[in-house]
Amino acid sequence: MYLVQKFYDLVDFKKVMIPHLEKDEAVNGLPLGILMNANQDMKPTVMAGLYDNEQPILMLLQTHPKQIIVAVFERISPNDLPLISKLIHESITEIPGLIGDKAIVEEIAMHIASLRSLKVVLGMDQRIYQLKELKKKADQTGIFRWADKSDQAIIQQWVYDFAVSINQPLEIDQAAKRAEELIESNRLAFWEVDNQVVSMANASRPTKNNITINFVYTPKEFRKRGYASNCVAELTQRLLSSGFSSTSLYTDITNPTSNKIYMEIGYEPKIDSILLFLEK
User: Fold this and answer.
1) What digits encode the pLDDT tens for the residues 116-132?
2) Structural domains in the chain (count)
3) Residues β-bridged to residue 114
């Protein structure tokens, strides 16, 4: 028998959910990284678990205003998804969007949209990759370096442009704040050619064994020269050398070039993920 249990204490929620998320750190890197790096000041909008005979089989977590993360712990029969969707619909008041395992999220979003007379709008169609051993190192056509406070202006502009490129635009002040956070994290890297930064990549959401690479961005004028590949390859190697067993990243399924590049480096596909918005 399925039921949805809502949580109101972050510590309790983490205690229950993290062991299940850790069973696959790459696939669950987004929610696991958020929870493991959360402090007591974080107040998620939604914390809930779908239970089957007292065992959590699915988790719902919202820390972003437009999306609820769906993490699946056990195999769910497609025949059960209409009922599960109805239970989520009845338990969660506001569902602006869902992100997670494509096969599950598409069905849940469709059923909830029908129940609420809403339409489903595609946000991002992605694939999660994981790397355990680097196959192709960065070449010597440039220099890898860590970003610092002196790079604030360019990081802010690139964060803004990156957000536009993935159809999640930010206001300038939001981009500025995100740039500051990236600098303070000390995990944002640049690839530099002839004393000019040409690409960036960031390491985020560390878990026990895995860390995620995100904010991979190269301005249009520097693309198709292998800069992003070099930046990601060198960052990946440094993360593995620092003690992580694996690294993971999200790619745009509709961009075959980036998927091919990452696979050449050594990234292997794990699961397809999708972000869907529910709109009037």
Assistant:
1) 999 999 999 999 999 99
2) 2
3) none
